[in-house]
């Protein structure tokens, strides 16, 4: 039996979030899965996500919201495509069939609809449906979190912030999981460049819940964006014991810690975190967040002149099986970094050609639509850079620089593409590109004053183009 602290049928009903199941056990397990999702943590006392998902299916095999949360979580993890994974595609179909054969609430029907839209890659429409749910049910945490994740994948920064703002007044301190809204709100604030406010709100969240890893993550971003490197290092270290327990986000928080070292030019310290935390975890879990972090970290280090050749080969073992997935462009670009780094040209070619094919008939898949307008060109820009054709790389990358946000991820994650463009301009033998690179560095220095990395790049540009 699951802990009594989780909400049963009556508790959900009294909150206006009725679940169409007569099994108290199933309703509590739904709460247990939701709680782990919000906390970014496998709770081993409950059997983790997997244990709870098995148990909920046993407790009530026809519980629609049980299917919505378990299949929905697999979809938002972006580790698998319904185009290629028949088991996942049939789990989506099964949920839709169950929903149409039962008398469930309008809210639950909308949840099924949003999950189905997301499974087809129609992220914008899925978000519209989750927002419809939140208008009538502002304390529906699953709708709020799924929308937050989907906005993140679209680089929809303002929507990610406002989605949380709209529901805040309806959450009371006694509402289960209410303190975690601080981290969600803070992240939206920082992605819309309200750094001081973002830090304040995240710290309020940590005062309520010291092990809220998403609030920690938000503060890590603030220090990254302001290039307050020593503050960031001290903060991550002083709170490591708190955020480390959130195993789903721990690797990503270690990645942030390593970025401060890269910023300072302390590459050995960054590589130590890569080996002991980031790569180790991504190899063990196959988590997409951990995997893209490993990709971008090696790419950043390589741009800085660090030799990471053997690590590319190891990481290729993790990314290569995902070459044909094409769930998000953000993932694709990171897989491409690895195949280029490992000099695995057949894999790089296959990835780009697969994307070109999908871009021809994107349907309502938002990521495949984007592949046609910016995705393929961005991939080609990376390939030209990898082949030493720096001038062509600049010609491809520069026109896209203000659209990179559409690939999704955070400002901190997308900064790898800003750095790439700067490196391409500096290495190009075109004088106009070299001047452009210096302009981009002035801009970077103004937006992130006191950045050691920017200073190093400026010195290199001066030395190269005397």
Automatic annotation (TrEMBL):
SUPFAM superfamilies, per the entry: TPR-like
Family: Belongs to the TTC38 family.
Gene3D superfamilies named among the record's database cross-references: Tetratricopeptide repeat domain
UniProtKB keywords: Repeat, TPR repeat
Protein's recorded name: Tetratricopeptide repeat protein 38
Entry annotated with the keyword Repeat: yes
